[in-house]
C-alpha cells in the first residue's frame, strides 16, 4: 500500500482530517480534545487506519492562539536595553476607539516586574556606543530567576544592525535553562515596539508549542515527517515551529485561504475572496492572483511583525447571539453561544437566539441532516429563542429571523468591503469562495449584496483548512533592514548584497530539510515608502531599482488613492521568501454530464426575503454526493452534506464542474426563469412556518 499524506486542522470543537492516498482524498471529523489536542489527532488517524502508513503529517494548531487569547501562556520575562523596559507598555499613539473616553488598554503579556534592563547601546548603524556590561546582565538574570520565569524574550536596541550584544545575552539566558527567543534570530527588523511585542509573543507561547509538538512527534510512527502550518500560508518543520512558535498563531485561517486558492484554481479562477464562516467568527481574505500578506497583524490586541496572510476577522458566525443595545437596536455578535451551551436548537441549555436559530426558523437546514444525521436540531427551542426577539421587535417570527440573518450578513459584508472596496479593488471582479461550517449558508446573499457574480462552494467546505495544509509549500521568510534611498548610487549593490546573503541562508535551510535544488524557489521583495512616511508597501523586486520604484508609485496610487513620482523613495527592508515546492494532491477531474438530471430528495418550505416581507418558497432538497459533474439546477434549493449545508436562493443557478466544485451564479433571467417557476410555489409565510413546525424542518 502507498504511503499517506495527512492534513489536520485542530479547532475548538472539531479536529478535521484530510488524507491523500493513491490519488484519492478522504475526509473525517472527530471531537477536539482541548486538554491534549494530539489525542484527537491520533484518534482520528486511528479510526481512518492511517497510522501505520503515514508518511507526512501537516498540522495546523490553535494551541498558540488560544494561549494568547486566554492568557494561559508561559510565565515570560523580557531583557532589553537600559531605558527601554516600558516600550512594551507605552506602545504607539494610536487609539483603538478614537472617541471612547474609557478605553481599556490590553495589558502587556510581561508585567513590569519581569521586564529587566542591561546596560549597552548601539547606534542605528550597529556601531557600539556603550559596551555590554556583564554585571548588569548578571543582575537582570538574577531578577528573572527570582521571578521564576519559564521563557525569556531578548530584544536590544538596534540588534538588527549588529546582533553581537543580543547573542551574548541570549547565550547567558539559555545557560539558565529557559526557553529563549532573541529578536536577531526571529525578527531582525526595525520598529522597536512591534519587534518587542512579536518576540514576547514568541516567548509566551514557545514552551507550550515546544512541549506539545515534542509529545506529538513521540506519538507518531517512527519516520513520519511532521510539518506545521504557519500564518504566512506555508509550512515549516516541527523543529523550527518549536523555536519560532509565533509563526503558527494564525495557522488555521491561513490554511483556509491556501485551500480556497487551490480549489478555485482547479476551476480556472484566479481572483477570489475567501469567506470562512465558523461558529464564532468570520475570516475573509482577498486573493488577486497571489495571496495577500501583511506584517502588521494583531493577536488578542498584541502586534506582531511576522509575515502572515492578510485576513480580516469579525465576530459573526453561526453561534453569534442576537441582543439589544441601550438604544433598543437589534445587534448580532460578537458574543457567541460557543459550543457549550451553543445555540438553542442544539438542545444543550442555550436559550438566547443565535444566527443558527434564525436559520432554523427559516427552514434553511434539515434537522435530521445536521452533522450527517449524528445530531438532530430542535426547531421548537429555536422558535422560542427567536420568538423573544420577535416579541420585543413587535414583528412576526419570520421577520425577526430574517432580521438576525440580515444583521449578521451586514457585519460580514463590511469585512469583505474592507479588504476589497476600501483597498481600491472591485468585488464584482472576484469569485466568492465560501467554506467553513456556515459559509455556504450565507454566501449567495452576501454575493448579491456586493454584486459578486459567482459563488464557489468546494466539494468539502467544512474541512478546507485541512486540505489547504496538504497543498501548502514549505515557506521560510527572511528580512534585513537597510534604510537607504532607492536612487542612491550604492543602493543597487547594497540591495543585491543583502538579498544574496538571505538567499544563501534560505537555500541552505531548505537543503537541510531534504529539498533538492530544483525544488527551491526564491522570491525577492523590497519594503518601500516615501521619505518621511511611517508605513511601507512591499513590492516584488526583479533586480531593477527604477522599476521597483515605478511599481511602488502604482501600488501607492491603488492602495491610498494618490502617489507622487517626484517624491524620493526609501528602501526600508529587503525581504526574501525561500519556497520548498511540494507536490500537491491533484483534484481528480471527471467527465461532465450536461445531460444528467438530478432528482431532489424532496421539497420543503424555506423562507427568503421578498419585496413585501418574508416569502415561503418550495425548495428542492439535494444531497451533495448525488450531484455529478455537469449537472445544473436552479434555486430555491438546499444542498446537504456531511460538513455543511448550502443555500441556493431564488434567482440563482448552480452547476457542478469537473472537479466537483459547486458554482452558483445569478440567473440572467432572474427569479422569473421558466424552469424555476415550475419548481417553486409561494404561499403566505405564516402558513409555511406552521408546516415547517409540523414537519420539523429547520436549520443548523
Automatic annotation (TrEMBL):
Residues 7-176 form the Hydantoinase/oxoprolinase N-terminal domain. GO terms for biological process: glutathione metabolic process. InterPro entries: ACX-like_C, Hydant_A_N, Hydantoinase_A, Oxoprolinase-like. Transmembrane segments: none annotated. GO terms for cellular component: cytosol. Residues 488-658 form the Acetophenone carboxylase-like C-terminal domain. Pfam families: Hydant_A_C, Hydant_A_N, Hydantoinase_A. It comes from the Bacteria. One of its GO terms (molecular function) is 5-oxoprolinase (ATP-hydrolyzing) activity. Residues 195-477 form the Hydantoinase A/oxoprolinase domain. PANTHER family: 5-OXOPROLINASE RELATED, HYPOTHETICAL 5-OXOPROLINASE (EUROFUNG)-RELATED. This is 5-oxoprolinase. It comes from Thermogemmatispora tikiterensis.
Amino acid at each position: 500500500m502507498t504511503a499517506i499524506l495527512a492534513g489536520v486542522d485542530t479547532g475548538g470543537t472539531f479536529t478535521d482530517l484530510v488524507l491523500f492516498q493513491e490519488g484519492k482524498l478522504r475526509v473525517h471529523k472527530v471531537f477536539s480534545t482541548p486538554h491534549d489536542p494530539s489525542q484527537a489527532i491520533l484518534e482520528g488517524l486511528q479510526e481512518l487506519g492511517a497510522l501505520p502508513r503515514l508518511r507526512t503529517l501537516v498540522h495546523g494548531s490553535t494551541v498558540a492562539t488560544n494561549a494568547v487569547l486566554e492568557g494561559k501562556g508561559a510565565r515570560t520575562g523580557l531583557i532589553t536595553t537600559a531605558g527601554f523596559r516600558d516600550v512594551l507598555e507605552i506602545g504607539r499613539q494610536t487609539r483603538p476607539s478614537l472617541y471612547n473616553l474609557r478605553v481599556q488598554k490590553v495589558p502587556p503579556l510581561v508585567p513590569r516586574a519581569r521586564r529587566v534592563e542591561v546596560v549597552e547601546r548601539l547606534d542605528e548603524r550597529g556601531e557600539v556606543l556603550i559596551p555590554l556590561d556583564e554585571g548588569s546582565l548578571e543582575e537582570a538574570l538574577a531578577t528573572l530567576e527570582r521571578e521564576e520565569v519559564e521563557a525569556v524574550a531578548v530584544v536590544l536596541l538596534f540588534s538588527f544592525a549588529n546582533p553581537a550584544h543580543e547573542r551574548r545575552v541570549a547565550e547567558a539566558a539559555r545557560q539558565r535553562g529557559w526557553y529563549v527567543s532573541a529578536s536577531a534570530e526571529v525578527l531582525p527588523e526595525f520598529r522597536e515596539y512591534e519587534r518587542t511585542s512579536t518576540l514576547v509573543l514568541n516567548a509566551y507561547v514557545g514552551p507550550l508549542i515546544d512541549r506539545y509538538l515534542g509529545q506529538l512527534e513521540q506519538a507518531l510512527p517512527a519516520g513520519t515527517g511532521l510539518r506545521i502550518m504557519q500564518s504566512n500560508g506555508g509550512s515549516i518543520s516541527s523543529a523550527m515551529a518549536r523555536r519560532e512558535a509565533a509563526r503558527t498563531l494564525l495557522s488555521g485561517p491561513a490554511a483556509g485561504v491556501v485551500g480556497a486558492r487551490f480549489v478555485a484554481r482547479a476551476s480556472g479562477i484566479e481572483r477570489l475572496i475567501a469567506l470562512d464562516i465558523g461558529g464564532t467568527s468570520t475570516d475573509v481574505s482577498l486573493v488577486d492572483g497571489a495571496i495577500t500578506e501583511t506584517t502588521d497583524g494583531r493577536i488578542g490586541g498584541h502586534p506582531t511583525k511576522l509575515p502572515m496572510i492578510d485576513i480580516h476577522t469579525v465576530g459573526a458566525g453561526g453561534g453569534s447571539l442576537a441582543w439589544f443595545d441601550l438604544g433598543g437596536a437589534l445587534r448580532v455578535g460578537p458574543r457567541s453561544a460557543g459550543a457549550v451551551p451553543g445555540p438553542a436548537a442544539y438542545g444543550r441549555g442555550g436559550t438566547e437566539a443565535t444566527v443558527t436559530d434564525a436559520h432554523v426558523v427559516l427552514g434553511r437546514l434539515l434537522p435530521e441532516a445536521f452533522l450527517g444525521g449524528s445530531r438532530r436540531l430542535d426547531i421548537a427551542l429555536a422558535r422560542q429563542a427567536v420568538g423573544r426577539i420577535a416579541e420585543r421587535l413587535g414583528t412576526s417570527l419570520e421577520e425577526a429571523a430574517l432580521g438576525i440573518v440580515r444583521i449578521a450578513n451586514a457585519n460580514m459584508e463590511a469585512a469583505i468591503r474592507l479588504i476589497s472596496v476600501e483597498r481600491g479593488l472591485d468585488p464584482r471582479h472576484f469569485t466568492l469562495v465560501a467554506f467553513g461550517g456556515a459559509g455556504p449558508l450565507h454566501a449567495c446573499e452576501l454575493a448579491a449584496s456586493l454584486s459578486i457574480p459567482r459563488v464557489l462552494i468546494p466539494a468539502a467546505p467544512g474541512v478546507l483548512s485541512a486540505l489547504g495544509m496538504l497543498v501548502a509549500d514549505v515557506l521560510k521568510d527572511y528580512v534585513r533592514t537597510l534604510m537607504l534611498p532607492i536612487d542612491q548610487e550604492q543602493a543597487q549593490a547594497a540591495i543585491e548584497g543583502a538579498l544574496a546573503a538571505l538567499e544563501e541562508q534560505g537555500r541552505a535551510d531548505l537543503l537541510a530539510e531534504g529539498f533538492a535544488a530544483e525544488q527551491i524557489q526564491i522570491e525577492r521583495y523590497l519594503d518601500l515608502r516615501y521619505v518621511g512616511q511611517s508605513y511601507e508597501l512591499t513590492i516584488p523586486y526583479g533586480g531593477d531599482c527604477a522599476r521597483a520604484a515605478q511599481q511602488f508609485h502604482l501600488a501607492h496610487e491603488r492602495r491610498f488613492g494618490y502617489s507622487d513620482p517626484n517624491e524620493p523613495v526609501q528602501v526600508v527592508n529587503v525581504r526574501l521568501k525561500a519556497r520548498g515546492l511540494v507536490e500537491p494532491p491533484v483534484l481528480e477531474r471527471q467527465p461532465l454530464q450536461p445531460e444528467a438530471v438530478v432528482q431532489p430528495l424532496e421539497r420543503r418550505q424555506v423562507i427568503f426575503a421578498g419585496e413585501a416581507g418574508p416569502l415561503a418558497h418550495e425548495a428542492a432538497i439535494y444531497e451533495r454526493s448525488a450531484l455529478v459533474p455537469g449537472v445544473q439546477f436552479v434555486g430555491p434549493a438546499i444542498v446537504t452534506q456531511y460538513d455543511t449545508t448550502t443555500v441556493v436562493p431564488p434567482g440563482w443557478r448552480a452547476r457542478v464542474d469537473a472537479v466537483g466544485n459547486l458554482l452558483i451564479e445569478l440567473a440572467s433571467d432572474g427569479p422569473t426563469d421558466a424552469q424555476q417557476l415550475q419548481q417553486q410555489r409561494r404561499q403566505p409565510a405564516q402558513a409555511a412556518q406552521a408546516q415547517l413546525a409540523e414537519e420539523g424542518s429547520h436549520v443548523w
